Amino acid sequence: MLETLYWDGEVAMILDQRKLPGQTTYIACRNMRRVIYCIQSLATRGAPAIGCAAAMGLVLAARAIRVKDPAKFRQRLDRAAETMRAARPTAVNLAWACDRVLAVAAMAPDDVETIRAMLRRESEIMLAEDVAINRAMGDHGAKLVPRRATILTHCNAGSLATAGFGTALGVIRAAVAAGKQVSVIADETRPLLQGGRLTAWEMVQEGIPVKVAPDSAVGVIMAKGLVDLCVVGADRVAANGDVANKVGTFNVALQAKRHRVPFYVAAPLSTVDLDTPTGADIPIEEREAKEVLTAMGRAIAPPGAEGLNFAFDVTPQDLVSAIITEVGVIERPYRRNLARAKKQARV
Ligand code: MRU
Q1: pLDDT tens track for 315-343
Q2: What is the mean pLDDT of residues 18-26?
Q3: What is the maximal distance between C-alpha atoms in the chain?
Q4: Which is the most buried residue in 25, 35, 213, 274, by most CB within 10 A?
Q5: Which residues lie with the beta carbon below 6 Å from any ligand 1 atom?
């Protein structure tokens, strides 16, 4: 698999996912602004990948803070983290990663060079940890997959959305590795086609059979009995188990309930936000109208039409069959069990 993001010496290299599957190019980020551009433009995307990119961005910011006094250095780093945090609102991994980097800076000895080195090391640990967490999630989730199964997924919660292996696609990869016969239905995921472009690309690379379907076909596909289970990722899981994920996920969950198909969410505990009581408290990103008024760079609506472009929706917890995490499969009651898992794992 292509690396989603990595360090090349002092430069943060970020795969430009807007160009996939056609072209493989990396954006070389030498400062935090460039990383924020990558996050906002969706050159890099997916909650865990956004978190990793944020940590790398703060390392670059730390390098650019030219003061020797540790207290002043930390103050400036706090300000940089505030800017980073505001890059996108829904995926909580962004704020989580900023908090983690600031905690390292706070605990480090009072020497600016040492703090910088420790932040760099922390960003590397976060990248490696993310892959390990996804593999653990995959192993837990694979047990929920029957010996032969067609799995429907929405958006891209794959290697590209993480530092590697993926969350929802990690479950699929682990099931295949365990010898199960899996095929995938990838919702195309309008307007930016993360399913059609990215999920389908990852599956083709792996040799896992994949069919791309319009988002609006979920009803007919399930009515025909073509789906055994759904697995999706998450941008934020509220304390009560409500799940924010790419717009259209809620529709998938409703159809799954109607057709008695299990609907699983695969998400690391860093995506679970106990400070957000319910889905109604999750900020939903609204993006430029242009994204829905155009397709592949061409206008698809007449001049004068407005766009309505919510990038995420919230699936209420009662539609979620279980939440697959790195510490195991979490079932209801979510409020109690998510809090318990976070406490035990100290995430
Ligand atoms: O707007 P995006 O492409 O960043 O949205 C991504 C998703 O909604 C993913 O499903 C989610 O972040 C989980 S990624 C493991």
Answers
A1: 999 999 999 999 999 999 999 999 999 99
A2: 97
A3: 66
A4: 35
A5: 42, 45-48, 91, 155, 157, 161-162, 167, 194, 233-235, 245-246, 311
214, 123: one domain: no
How far apart (Å, rounded) are the C-alpha atoms in residues 347 and 96?
Answer: 9
CATH number of the domain where residue 310 is located: 3.40.50.10470
On whether both 277 and 213 belong to a single domain, the answer is: yes
Return the ligand 1 atom nearest residue 266 CA.
15
User: How far away, in angstroms, is 245 Cα from ligand 1 center?
Assistant: 6
Long-range contacts of 208-213 (CB under 8 A, 24+ apart): 208/172, 208/173, 208/176, 208/182, 208/183, 208/184, 209/183, 209/184, 210/183, 210/184, 210/185, 210/186, 211/183, 211/184, 211/185, 211/186, 212/186, 212/187, 212/188, 213/185, 213/186, 213/187, 213/188
pTM for this predicted structure: 0.97
Same domain, 95 and 139: no
pLDDT tier at 256, thresholds 50, 70, 90: very high
Domain total of the chain: 2
Residue entry with tokens 């976070």: 342
Domain-ending residue, one of 134, 158, 176: 134
Residue in the structure block whose two tokens are 């995307």: 45
The boundaries of the domain holding residue 10 are 5-134
What are the residue numbers of the active site? 235
DSSP single-letter state for residue 17: G
Query: How far does residue 231's CA lie from ligand 1's centre (Å)?
Result: 13
146 in the same domain as 79:
no
Q: How would you class 92 by CB atoms within 10 Å of its CB: exposed for 0-12, middle for 13-18, buried for 19 or more?
A: buried
Report in angstroms the alpha-carbon separations of 166 from 70, 298, 325, 346: 37, 31, 12, 22
Ligand 1 atom, smallest distance to 93 CA? 12
Which among 23, 29, 24, 32 is positioned nearest to 7, based on CA atoms? 29
Confidence of residue 76 (pLDDT cuts 50, 70, 90): very high
Q: DSSP secondary structure string, 103-117? A: HHHHHS-S-HHHHHH
- Residue 119 belongs to domain with CATH number: 1.20.120.420
